[in-house]
Request: fold
Amino acid sequence: MNSPGKALEMASGEWDWEQGKRTVLLSTAPKAAYFWQEEPQVSPDGESFAAIVRLEDESFTMRVNDLEWEERYEKAWFPRFAPDGRLSCLVMSDDEWTMSVDGVSWEERFGFIWGTMFGAGGQIHAAIQQDMRYGMAVDGVPWEELFENANEFALSGDGKKSAAVVQVKSLKQADLEGFRSNIFSLAVEGSRAWDTDFMNLWTPVFDERGGGRVACQARLNPFEYTIVVSGEPWPATYNCVWAPAFDPATGALAAPVRQGGRWGMAVDAALQWAPRYYQCWEQQWSRDGKKLWAVVAPEYGKFTVACNDALWTETFPAVSDLVLSPAGDRAAALCCRINADYRVVVDGAAWQGLWDMAWKPVFSPDGRHVAALVQTKGCFTYLVDDKPAGETFSRAWPPFFSKDSSSVLLRGIQGNALVRIVLLLKDII
Reply:
């Protein structure tokens, strides 16, 4: 899990929040010297435009506004801005892969690298393969031990610890009996963290209160699933389970579980929501642990949101991207009809308008306001508390609220120009 929201909130205090519209870059179009330009990105503060470019000598580099990195690469992909504004890109030179950050490559080289993740403390993590063994690298330093197989990479909330599901026993091809003997366990910071092995593990989740607790979904045998915490399985087993979530206040652990063909919610292995749903997932706790939210399907093909097992009144063909206010007392999500007719839903009420696409809603720090980026017929725009922000773009990126919740930052391309717009909420709503 990669959730650098805290780092973004901290960094946003240093951004330019002067009200108004400013052109940052006159043209984001490819320059004449580029064979092509791809994977455009805009920094969180809206001050930088970046894209991979291929040059006349067939090498690749990163364009940042009107300049290019000095380094040249044989290949480049997955450029991403960190919450603090640094630009990372996965690059290859001399048939070896590494990470470049602001145009300076890590010294260590790998057989392959992917899955960039940013820690709240400024760390940059990535999954790596070296000599057909797998693990993670943190700020250029690989795990001391790599494994035959590693997947389901995750970070702690402060970004100081990384984890992955790892294979701890070798298998020959088509060795079904060996697979059934339990070959997966958990590694944290490159060392095996649990003595117990499982047929399968998924979605490691850290207890954000500290103490080193990690929980996973686990498959015990071909027919039974459960949740494992610090290597210890829950005493109960289920037909299936989804990813667990720790209560940030108490450390209680909630997980959707399937029994008798229906889904419910278990907390610390005890059923809290009866198995009455066709689906139940994306659960999240409020900050004080008093509210537990989830996306549920009370009927086949009808989805909504539940809070403490109480449903929103309206149902929809699909619900996704559940997000809570900072305190967790409010919720917003997206609903749609088979990847069409997207709508933003806040506290159970759908906003006006149907959209070809919509992105995860964003709450203001004080929890009173919601903004969302939406798109229809190739035109992007922003909504704030169900009111249009009044600007349209040919491409845009998600909005940000100021720390005092008085303003919203919009970032997008109009014509070929990158513009950043700071609007006072009182002028929109």
